[in-house]
């Protein structure tokens, strides 16, 4: 990509079985990798990507099969940047220039692009033209660009390959300015997952179903009830659930920003991070919660962090100081012992977390779906390269938690968490007062049958300093913690505790 472009790459692995997720996670590429727990289909995978994308940015979709070279991306972006189109589709079949007889370099591999696939594509293009008066030569192309705010307009009703045809027709019907441009692209070296007969038939049904205003839809739903009923039920259910969830989240936001009903306690342990600590505190104030407190516990810093605070910064702030460095866990515990919140939030002072994510972390507890919420960088957006040893260590702990305690928690070392006040008893009798504290709390919570969920958050690179986590001592403490809590877990599981 041209360095003039400011871009973020997100890869969504739709339940692959070839290790795609782990390969990308362990790579040094600066990309965001998200994994579906199972194969959900292209429609739902695209929807997830559209939901994660910034609505104020151009969104570009490209298949992962290598068919479309990234070098063609500027060609796709240009019409949008020049305000000539709102959706741009890269076509394999449009002529590259008026004087050329070639319609795209797919002809170099024409054995892969079979006669029947080409025939099916032409038939789909013909139907779209007949019914919608818009000729699209390559309605199944997975190489597309969307102007800011356009991608989020589309909510897929289908999960298979028919989603691309549905998307194309949707934008035509919505009056969105759609443009095809020729792409000098070849075909993938692997065999297509698309079934010519089955998927073409589904695409045909989708095209006809989208003619509801012309009276065809009712007939088709009667003729093929199973296909449409399943999609319709799923679509309606997900739509209603989405509306309900959004209303509940908005209601929670209103409660937290306009009433005294719930108090939020922020616990910020710090050690020689005065500049970033000030930034974190100011960001918390900027959320404009109505009833909150910020408890800062300085673990023996020598940079006097509070000296940088002004009068407004100290609003709702309680500051405590350790004479000597006692460790991360002990620092968090001291802060929690002094808090009075209904929701207790621990957040690091290094500035990597975005306090605006607090609403998403509180919501599962407010909605009675969790007792503890862990902010996960692996299911959200993170904007820095996680060190390899950190990833290996967290993966080891994740496997340990899953294999021995029955619950996998990917971001098990996360410092951004929210606890229901009823879990306050977890913090009594803690054995490890340094970084292993984060894992010990999870093990203790599982033993006591509290419900733990992970929620996506934003995570940013450190602007100052480096991580102080000592890998070997941490893993040794995690091992000791496992030895201590696993027998308790077994006793609880078999009703002996």
Automatic annotation (TrEMBL):
Residue stretches spanning the membrane: none
InterPro entries referenced in this protein's UniProt entry, alphabetically: Glyco_trans_2-like, Glycosyltransferase_2, Nucleotide-diphossugar_trans
A Pfam family it matches: Glycos_transf_2
Q: Which EC number(s) are documented for this chain? A: 2.4.2.53
The chain positions of domain Glycosyltransferase 2-like read: 5-115, 265-385
Keyword annotations = Glycosyltransferase, Transferase
Q: Which Gene3D superfamilies match?
A: Spore Coat Polysaccharide Biosynthesis Protein SpsA, Chain A (3.90.550.10)
The molecular function terms in GO held by this entry are: undecaprenyl-phosphate 4-deoxy-4-formamido-L-arabinose transferase activity
In Swiss-Prot or TrEMBL terms, this protein is called Undecaprenyl-phosphate 4-deoxy-4-formamido-L-arabinose transferase
């Amino acid at each position: 990509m041209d360095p003039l472009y400011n871009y973020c790459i997100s890869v969504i692995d739709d339940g692959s079985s070839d290790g795609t997720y782990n390969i990308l996670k362990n790579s040094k590429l600066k990309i965001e990798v998200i994994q579906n727990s199972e194969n959900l289909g292209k429609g739902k995978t695209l929807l997830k990507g559209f939901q994660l994308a910034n609505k104020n940015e151009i969104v570009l979709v490209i298949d992962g099969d290598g068919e479309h070279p990234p070098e063609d991306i500027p060609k796709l972006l240009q019409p949008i940047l020049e305000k000539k189109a709102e959706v741009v589709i890269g076509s394999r079949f449009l002529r590259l220039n008026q004087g050329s007889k070639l319609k795209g370099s797919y002809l170099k591999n024409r054995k892969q692009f079979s006669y029947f696939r080409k025939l099916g594509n032409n038939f789909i293009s013909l139907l779209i033209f007949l019914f919608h008066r818009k000729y699209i030569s390559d309605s199944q192309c997975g190489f597309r660009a969307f102007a800011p705010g356009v991608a989020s307009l589309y909510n897929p009703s289908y999960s298979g390959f028919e989603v691309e045809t549905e998307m194309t027709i949707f934008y035509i019907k919505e009056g969105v300015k759609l443009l095809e441009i020729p792409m000098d692209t070849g075909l993938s070296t692997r065999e297509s997952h698309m079934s010519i007969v089955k998927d073409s038939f589904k695409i045909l049904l989708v095209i006809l179903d989208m003619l509801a205003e012309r009276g065809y839809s009712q007939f088709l739903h009667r003729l093929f009830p199973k296909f449409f009923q399943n999609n319709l039920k799923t679509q309606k259910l997900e739509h209603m659930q989405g509306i309900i969830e959004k209303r509940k989240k908005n209601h929670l936001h209103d409660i937290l920003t306009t009433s005294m009903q719930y108090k939020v306690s922020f616990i910020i342990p710090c050690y020689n991070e005065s500049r970033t600590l000030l930034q974190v505190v100011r960001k918390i104030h900027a959320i404009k919660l109505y009833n909150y407190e910020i408890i800062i516990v300085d673990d023996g810093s020598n940079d006097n962090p509070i000296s940088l605070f002004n009068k407004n910064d100290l609003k709702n702030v309680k500051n405590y100081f350790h004479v000597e460095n006692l460790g991360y866990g002990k620092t968090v515990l001291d802060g929690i012992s002094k808090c009075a919140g209904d929701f207790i939030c621990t957040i690091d002072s290094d500035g990597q977390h975005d306090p605006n994510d607090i609403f998403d972390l509180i919501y599962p507890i407010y909605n009675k779906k969790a007792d503890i919420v862990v902010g996960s960088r692996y299911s959200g957006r993170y904007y820095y390269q996680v060190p390899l040893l950190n990833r290996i260590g967290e993966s080891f702990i994740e496997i340990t938690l899953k294999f021995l305690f029955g619950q996998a928690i990917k971001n098990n070392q996360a410092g951004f968490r929210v606890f229901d006040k009823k879990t306050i008893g977890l913090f009594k009798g803690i054995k490890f007062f340094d970084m292993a504290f984060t894992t010990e709390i999870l093990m203790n919570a599982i033993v006591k049958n509290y419900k733990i969920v992970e929620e996506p958050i934003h995570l940013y690179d450190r602007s100052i300093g480096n991580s102080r986590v000592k890998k070997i001592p941490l893993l040794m403490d995690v091992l000791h913690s496992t030895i201590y809590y696993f027998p308790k877990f077994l006793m609880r599981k078999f009703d002996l505790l």
